[in-house]
Amino acid sequence: MKYITPHSRIVLVRPSHPGNIGAVARAMKTMGLTDLALVSPRKFPDDEAYALSTHAKNILDNARIVNSIEDALENITYVYATSANDRELSLPVYTPKSAGEKIVFDTLHNIHRTAILFGPESHGLSNEDLALVHGFIQIPTSKEYHSLNLAQAVQIIAYEIFVSFNEDNALSDSKEMQSFYRHLEKILTKIKYLDPENPRQLMQKCRGMFNRTHLKKNELQILRGILKGIDEKTD
Fold this sequence. Notes:
- The chain is an alpha/beta fold.
- It has two domains: 8-164, 3-Layer(aba) Sandwich (Alpha/beta knot); 174-233, Helicase, Ruva Protein, domain 3 (Orthogonal Bundle), CATH 1.10.8.590.
- The protein contains nine helices and seven strands, in the order βαβααβαββαββαααα.
- The longest helix has 17 residues, at 174-190.
């Protein structure tokens, strides 16, 4: 099966150990992600990082090394932060799967360029770090022990982005959705459910309903098949 991956920037904030940076690069490489930013790394470049990156040397060579989160988020419009703790903030909370699906949807529809922040290994992101965040990603873990190392956390989230974007599971893009809406409007008019003289905002409501579902390509094909069957039966 052929896989493709949307853009998403991985941002490591003040990483302490160069080995973790290398392991993160390797995790990204296996899932097709290439955009890495490092905010004030304690030690980088470093031989240990390159040793643990295996075949992901190119990701380290091209990593953005910056002094602030703001610089790391250049050209980014939606920022996720990973967190193991519940925060008393009015921000949406995503699982890795739901975040992966949203990242894919936002990419296909040119809505957002995304970044995912990972905090320092010892204590995570500070409240100040979270000032630019739009949502949290929380990875479900055992109640007895929920500590993941940095590369494990990146691997899990990158995997969900990767899986959500494969060709069998890819979300319908904007062009496909517009074609579907034209087809739907034609059929609804044909069966006299939609009156062009008095549309009652029916198509706007249909668009809102289907846009909220984030239709996958194979799901859209099923709906187009149903519309085609209705069209043939009503001739």
